[in-house]
Structures are given as structure tokens and as C-alpha cells.
């Protein structure tokens, strides 16, 4: 894939270049959540499924990923699975719980990796672990695949998820993020602890409690904020937002998750630790001297910021390069549009085993 790249520490090592593999994480915007009133900047013809699906498939092919991690997929059975198989990928899909029609998908280039086993989980069961707190019933899911590199035989564990959206519920997000890591680590410990790659739309900005937990290994469980007011007649949430989290989205599956009227805190103030003292590093930050992540991955008229990540264990994996996000030279550059079929952009990292 052509583009502007930022280079990581491993870029100076020719051996890493030759052994590198590409991981992509991409929220593709489920067609079930596309409404012209949510994206008034985008011509209606560009929002039609036939147009968007063909654009998405061309884009996915152009990414030339070895591992594709996708969120908000709602056409896996109706076309995407067949496309992926024909393009040389083995893939698995995990639908969201409840009445949701979209889910997560991981596709693996079979020439590079053998897909050994897939694992899935649902975050709704967190409610049972927290006094049946219904605020944790959000129908979000996660999944992981255990891979074996065909040439070397090395194992790799890649996971993806799509966490809850509402900035009024940072504790729900932290609970889900902690469970995300617990699920992945549990799989890793069953298979001699291979290197881990975490991906996904975390619905959390780089300065959020979710990222503090994942990058440092611990955080204090935040308090919920007052509940969101009811959606207006257009189905959009009002503009109030929580600090260090994205505002309510103007589109996507988030609009279909109704706020809970009585926010019962989830372990307020409790120190949340990742299992085994683990912590992760952002691939994008590693390619920017560790100083900052991608400047944005989601851009609509009401929000521009980073929600999508590729996280690695820095002692086990190295970053060769990451694909830079487009420069925002136009103030009215919003997604989706005629060149971008989703309201998110893909994040792309070339990695190698340490």
C-alpha cells in the first residue's frame, strides 16, 4: 500500500524489514448504522451499501495486511467472508450479542500465518461479576486468534474488540478493557505465552483511563457521569462530553445503545491492575519517539480524535513503521466521504518479532 509512513525503532534493522508482518485495525462502519442525517456532508449515493461495500473491499485489498482486524462488520456472511477467502485469507467472525447485527472479524493471510484457533467472548457477563450492574450489559464483544508463522513456526496472538461508546460511562469502558486483557492473557497462558497484539476501536482517547490502564498496567476506576439526556428527534446525542473521552458519536452503532437512567458506580476508586503486571505500548507512539499516538482516527462534524489502536508488548515485538493518518488541511474534511467509506480510518503497523 502506498502512503506516508512513520518509522519505528526497528526500521534500521534490515532483518526486521524482511521478517515484518502487517497488522491493520479498522472500524468499517456497519451499514445498519448509516443514515444520511448522521452524515449530511456526504452525498447520499456514497452512503449506499453497494457503493460503500465495493469501496471497502478495494481499500482492504490495498492495505495488503497479513492480519486484518475489523469492527462494525455486518456483511460477513453476505459477501465479505467469500471475498476474504478468495483473496487468500482465512477469517473468523463474532457477532455482537442481543439484537445487534454487526460484530468483529479477524482475517489472516494464509500464506504467512496458519490460523491455529479462534477465541471469542462477550462483555455482558461482567454484570454478573459486579452485583448484576445492568450498566455493563452493552452487547460489546471481543475475539482473538492464535497464529503460527509458517516459515519460523513462531506463535502470535492477535486480538480485537469494539468497546462501549458513551463518555458518561468511563467505568464501563475500563471494566471492558480490563476484561479484554484478561481474556487475551488467559488464552496466551494456555499456549506458552506468545507475543500479544491488541487492536480495536476502544472508544477512548489517548488521555483516557482506558489507555492509562493498557499502557501503564493500572488505573483508578473512574466514576460515571450524570446520564446522557434522551436523544433528539434526529437520533443524535447532545454535545456534552466527558473529559478525555470522545463525545457522543453522530453515527454508528453507538446511537443504538440507550443510556441507563440510574448510573450505579462500578467499583469507584478501585485500583484496576492488568494481570501479571502486564502493560502494552502503542505502535503509533513507538514510531513517534513514544511521544504521541495518531492525531486522529475518527472524524465527523462533531468529533475528531483517536479511538483506534494497535498495541504491542514492546519486549516481544518491534515496530518497523506505521501508516500516517491523512493531514487535515481542510476544516470541512469529514468522514465518510467519496474517498473514505467509513467514519474511521484504518490504522496500520508493520511489526516484527524481537
TrEMBL record:
Residues 221-259 are annotated as: Disordered. It holds the Pfam family Exo_endo_phos. Residues 25-344 form the Endonuclease/exonuclease/phosphatase domain. InterPro entries: CCR4/nocturin_mRNA_transcr, Endo/exonu/phosph_ase_sf, Endo/exonuclease/phosphatase. GO terms for molecular function: 3'-5'-RNA exonuclease activity. Signal peptide: none annotated. This is Endonuclease/exonuclease/phosphatase domain-containing protein. It comes from Cyanidium caldarium.
